[in-house]
Write a structure and sequence with these properties.
elongated; Arc Repressor Mutant, subunit A; three-stranded antiparallel sheet; 5 helices
Length: 125
């Protein structure tokens, strides 16, 4: 079985739960709003339908990344979503890996060697 140093471009930290386009959109929206967002605000920011957003939020909630609060404002049902502390940490870890992907791709486009994660024998980005 290859080790991490044998496959420096495997990007294991690109979390499949987050990496899906709609869920990436939800996570980015929520990290930008630490107090959370109402379902309809989140739907508008992400450009999703009610059903589509509901399903993606459910996946993120099952993974412990997002909390969902259902209640009432006046007589109207109100649902809001927020990142959990674990969700925030996991998303920031994901973004660090994504930044490494961009650095590696830019270096490759410029034909500049880049140090793979854990390697020091090449020029760092």
């Amino acid at each position: 079985m290859p080790t991490k140093s044998d496959a420096p471009f495997s990007y294991d930290g690109l979390d499949r739960v987050i990496h899906e386009k709609a869920r990436l959109s939800v996570m980015t929206s929520l990290i930008s709003h630490p107090k959370g967002l109402a379902f309809n605000e989140l739907k508008k920011l992400c450009g999703l339908t009610d059903g589509n957003l509901s399903r993606h939020v459910q996946v993120l909630a099952e993974a412990g990344l997002v909390s969902v609060h259902k209640g009432y404002e006046g007589n109207r049902p109100h649902t809001s979503c927020a990142l959990t502390p674990a969700g925030r940490e996991r998303f920031l870890d994901y973004l660090n890996v994504l930044e490494q992907v961009v650095r590696n791709a830019n270096a490759a486009a410029e034909n500049t060697p880049v140090a793979a994660p854990g390697r020091t024998d090449l020029k760092p980005a």
